[in-house]
User: Fold these one by one.
Assistant:
Number 1:
Amino acid sequence: MIAEVITVGEIVGADDLELTLVAGERGLGHEVTGLHVSELEEPTGYLEGGELLLTLGSALGDIATRQRAYLRRLAEKDVAGLGVCLGYGLASVPSALVAAANAVDFPVFSVPRHVPTIALSTFVFGRLASERLEAVSRALAVNEELTQAVVSGADLPQLLLVISRSLGCSVVLLDESHRAIAENHVGQRTSFEGGAELPVLAGDRAATLRISLPAEEMSDSERLILQQAQNAIALHLSLRRAVSAAELRLAGDLLTDIEEGRLSERELARKMTAFGLRPEQRHVPFLALPSDSLSGEKLRLSIASALDRRPARYLSTARTDRAEFIVEARGESKLIELAEALVASRPGVRVGLGRAADTADLPHSIAEARASLTATDRPIASYRDLGSVELLLSLPEETLRAFVDQVLEGAVEDEAVIEALDALTRSSWRWNVAAQELGVHRHTLRYRMARLKERTGRDPEDPDHRMAFWFALKAKRLLEAREGGCADRSGAPSKPGQSLRIVR
């Protein structure tokens, strides 16, 4: 309990704090019941009214309408006032926020970079009981550590490490399906049965923060720390999803540049670092083709959710017809397990894996992942399925194109002939099987092969010519994959699409 009334005016007027009032002078008489620090765009769900709110400014955004709406929500919640800490991204308080605050007599003040939030908390809670002050100070210290971790790009396991260490217990974050996204433990893992749970809201997504401490046994300090943890995780999840359209295009462009080998090793390392990857580590290309009922972006989100529960970093993007990932290599078996779980839960989905590669070898590894989807009809394909196609991968594009033109000649543009040849080679030249797959009569298949012989001068009944046709088809599919499409079960290339999203 606060011993006596503290107003915003008293706080702003304190000489030692060096605060500057920028708006809402008529609201300086607002009584302050507590202090809260938040970087959430919507912090009011965690406020009761009467609090003095501090922000580093990231919650305000760059758009005037968003800033005015933010201020209006605080005023409607009866928040006592707002302190904007300068030097963390803002050089001054935005003019739109100032105008909105003056319109409703809501006090807003700026906090210099060199004034720590702990100094404000000491002043505001100076009349609290000593144990209350200690609890608040400890919670604010944890909040500063969590905020700095989020701003510096720490991942969820690192955030949970701070929370677990501060509370001295086990902590786990669950997704909407109550699956563990990340967890951390101090010493041995302790049971979460009977432990406290808090909702974490980030836009239209919800998660649950669960700790092994029962709610009724928590001290004031632990409750405050848990509240700060709730805010920090919500901020982390919000920032991770708040990716601009420009960044989305850049993610897709980077993957395209890697696939086509356009970047020097040094430039590639720099760009990978900018997206949160570690170029000194090896990475595995992970390509996924959706079923007819699934979009590339929905498939990407499903895979990303599974990867978020693992300690590996990754870059992802979605095309109109596929999801593409580059995943930090932590053991090939783990990614195969992920692929198996994916195709088991989503029938019709196919996955292609390249081998773990250094930065310089990533283009070749991506080509392997693409080619593997044409080398086998199995739901999960990898570089191990390439066989003799691996030889084709080592050849320059000009050589492959010349070989295809030489073998297939005038038939290369005849889709019906190429389709029939493809079905026959995949069925080991079993005419009945190939005809049934194509839905045509055997005589139609024979007629198409006669056209192939007429246009190429090669006899489909000749074993040597059959081998040449097989290699030419593989080379043709490989060229199509290099031009930007993966292949579906029939070996036909898919169309390249727009990059949609990245997750780090």
Note: Residues 485-504 have pLDDT under 50 and may be disordered.
Number 2:
Amino acid sequence: MKILSQLKTSTFQLALLYMVVFATSVFLLLAFIYWRTAGFMTEQTDETIEAEIAGLAEQYRGRGINGLVTVIRERVSRDPNAKSIYLLATDDYLKLAGNLSTWPGEAGSQNGWINFSLNEAVGWKGPVRLARARVFEVQGGLRLLVGRDVQELTTLKRLIERAINWGMGITLALALLGGFMMSRSTTRRIEVINKISRRIMNGHLSLRIPTRGTSDDFDQLAENLNQMLDRIVYLMEGIRHVSDSIAHDLRTPLTRLRNQLETTLLAVDNDEAREPAAKAVAEADQLLATFNALLRIARLETRGNAADKTVVMLGELVADACELYEAVAEDKEQTFEQAISSDVKIEGDRDLLFQMVSNLIDNAIKYTPESGDIRVAVDSIAGEAVLEVSDSGIGIPDSEKSNVFQRFYRVGKSRSLPGNGLGLSLVSAVTEIHQGRIELSDRRKGAENPGLKVQVYLPLYQPIKRRVMRGQQQGAADDNADDKTVAGGDADLGARSQS
């Protein structure tokens, strides 16, 4: 599988393109070398034949036909290996002299040149070989054939052809191997960047992409990314500092103001005066709840997956949350259905998980009308724990489902209801810490009140994997040690982001 994924990388495809260009260049170069080499050897053979023909023509002009026959016989006797081929025949192809007995008739003539086989058909007594000759007519109706044994030349050409084929094959194999190794090396460095980036996105903001000190493109990219991360951390620290300042400078005065209003409320006997004071206390409580929710979400998002995790029986935790909110549902005459599997184990922070479940149930109760129905279920599917909270309330339009996890985002239909739009933001932050995912869908498609079905998927507890990870992480410090956020079941934090 890794090899298949390696073949799909852009670096391998670029190396493959280079391989094609390189192989084409090598093929053209070898073809040119073969063409020039084979052509040169053929020209050398033809020049040798032409030289012998010129010598025989000179003998013919000086000594006549008898002298030509004598010269051919002498040359044949001096060439026991029969490298040179001679045949002087009459007009009807009767042999007069030479080392062939029969005129070769199967080869066609091209500008006087013929290629034929030396075999028994032409009176050849040795092994079958290839020959090339020049044919022309001599005065008096005679025919003369002068040629050379080109078997070695043909063998050499075939050897060169095989060498070219093998060379092309080796070139392609080496280019493919080199492309694979080059893309593998590049992919490894990219994967290091991806792995560190994923860990940084999970909250390990102290990590940085390693460099090799070679000052190559990857080192420059890593340095730029590290500088960008340093800048992001600096800005986040600034935001965190501002949040802490707000916590110290505003939360305490706001709490004092709320307490003073409450004291005033208790001291006032006039009902008309008590009502505005009570509303002011409620508004102060809402401001404090919103402020605390913002700080809690910010802490969760900056700490990443650094929560203190233990083995949690998800069914028991959800059952406790349902017991807490069941009375609230009864007050609104709502049907509260539970389908909880008790053997579902996950690994996580119990307090944060309880707050997440409480937010979802509180949202379902708050936005489901009286006499509506709510369903809470826990099960395990395909290696994941599934928490489902569905209701028959107003629901969320499909176009806005991707926006409800933003802070203070409220769906138009729920703006008149109490809430601060931070409930699902906190649920999203807790889910991300536990490496889970959330899916939102309508409970009943096409209905006036389609309701909302929230499904939270969390990884199941894997004891063997956990032990291996503990062994790998032994002795390593946590990159993002943080004070644990103690999460409560504050109903004011349960406002759904649609609200």
Note: The chain has a mean pLDDT of 77.
